[in-house]
Amino acid sequence: MSTSSANGSSAERSYFDLHMTGFGYLNRIRNIPPKKGKGSPYLACTIAALHGPKDSPEYCYIDAKVTGKDAIHLIRRCTEAVDAKRKVLIGFRVGDPWIDQFTYSKGPKAGQPGASLKARLLFVSWIKIDGDLVYKAEARDGDETTGEDPAAVEPADATVRTEAPAPKAVTETPLLPASSF
């Protein structure tokens, strides 16, 4: 549970926090315009979170609104790699998950009901691009990461992906050198 106070007053509001941690492939980084001109645009992404046995993982797709200055900066830095269909694997923490029900409007499922898991991306603990660790958050007191060593995290079948496979040969230097964060 967390607490916050408005304008420094002594009245505090308490909240129950629901957080999920894990790791998964980063996809569909995009800017979302405000609905009906109200509010401000925000950054969103899809995470194909891995779960299950390491030799045959399954994916849980999370549509996330990216919140927090550090998370926004890190996800924006990954846009070029994701657009180039490189494998971008992140350790993450999301909060306040909810299910969004919808009806497919086109394609083979047009007219059928669907559901999407939505959440807020709160924290990125590490980033790997094409298997190379390019970012690792510094440990903070009381700050929990995914509990996984990013060097040890790689699904047994790394070709299983959510979108198109990564290019076979990458000869350039890593897109996000650790020193750039």
Q: Which terms would index this structure?
A:
181 residues, 5-stranded mixed beta barrel, single chain, mainly beta
Topology, please?
Blueprint: E1 2-5, E2 12-15, E3 19-32, E4 42-51, E5 58-66, H1 69-77, H2 79-83, E6 88-103, E7 113-129, E8 132-136
Parallel strand pairs: 5-7
Antiparallel strand pairs: 1-2, 3-4, 3-6, 4-5, 6-7, 7-8
Question: Can you walk me through this structure?
Answer:
With 181 residues, the protein is mostly beta strands. The chain has one domain. 8% of the residues lie in helices and 44% in strands. It contains two helices and eight strands, in the order βββββααβββ. It has helices at residues 69-77, 79-83, and strands at residues 2-5, 12-15, 19-32, 42-51, 58-66, 88-103, 113-129, 132-136. It has a five-stranded mixed beta barrel. A hairpin with a 2-residue loop joins strand 7 (113-129) and strand 8 (132-136).
Count of structural domains: 1
Radius of gyration: 18 Å
Helix and strand composition category:
mainly beta
Order of helices and strands: EEEEEHHEEE
Approximate strand percentage: 35-45%
Number of helices in the DSSP assignment:
2
- How do the strands of the widest beta sheet line up side by side? 3-4-5-7-6
Overall average pLDDT: 81
Query: Uncertain spans, ≥5 residues at pLDDT below 50?
Result: 158-175
Number of strands: 8
Main sheet summary: 5 strands, mixed, barrel
Q: What portion of residues is helical? A: under 10%
Please tell me what the overall shape is: globular
Distance between the termini: 30 Å
